[in-house]
Design brief:
Blueprint: E1 4-7, H1 29-34, E2 38-41, H2 51-60, E3 64-70, H3 78-86, E4 89-90, E5 95-109, E6 115-121, E7 124-128, E8 134-138, E9 144-150, E10 159-160, H4 167-175
Antiparallel strand pairs: 1-6, 2-7, 3-9, 4-10, 5-6, 5-7, 5-8, 5-9
Length: 186
């Protein structure tokens, strides 16, 4: 099975719900690639010995890894953390997440500044490019176990929107220009 992604509706109630538009508008892996999002389906039950994961880490230079169990029982100030993750932001580096258990949603902006919702579940590895506006939340199960990958020592600083003058945002906009139309907020 491949990535599950769709255009998110504009309803601002519980962000842990799927929020499909009516009618549903699904987004393909090619459409995700157009905004720089990369995706792999891997075997989460054997991640320690997964040759595909090893190749991805080696080819992309991910030499640091840690785990994040995100649920009310394991995270102090859980609600505050979720609000922080769900605030629209960018990073100066790629965000690499491999879902080992549970489910959650990454929302990213497309060229027209619409939200694309990406469901991540066990086996999904996604890479968000540096400078892309995004946010994250869990689904209604309130649990996800993620492997976080980094190049070098982990640096996870978020810069809340607007960040049009941030170097990572400027580079992102340059990298994903299509036929002279930049990916800018409208």
């Amino acid at each position: 099975m491949t990535v599950q992604a769709w255009f998110k509706d504009d309803i601002d109630d519980d962000p842990r719900l799927p929020h499909h538009r009516n009618p549903k508008e699904f987004v393909s892996i090619d459409q995700l690639a157009e905004v720089g999002v990369l995706y792999w389906k891997l075997n989460p039950s054997d991640y320690e010995n997964d040759e595909d994961l090893r190749k991805i880490r080696e080819e992309r230079g991910y030499n640091y890894m840690d785990m994040l169990d995100l649920c009310p029982e394991k995270v102090e100030n859980y609600e505050e953390k979720l609000k922080m993750f769900y605030t629209e932001h960018i990073h100066q580096d790629e965000e690499i997440r491999y879902c080992l258990e549970g489910r959650g949603y990454f929302d990213v902006r497309d060229k027209e500044d619409r939200w694309i919702r990406i469901l991540v579940k066990a086996g999904d590895l996604i890479i968000l490019p540096a400078g892309i506006y995004h946010r994250f939340t869990l689904d209604t199960s309130n649990y996800v176990k993620l492997m976080r990958l980094f190049k070098g020592e982990p640096l996870w600083t978020c810069y809340n929107r607007p960040q049009e003058d941030h170097p990572a945002r400027k580079e992102y906009l340059k990298s994903f220009v299509k036929v002279g139309v930049p990916l800018e907020a409208h």
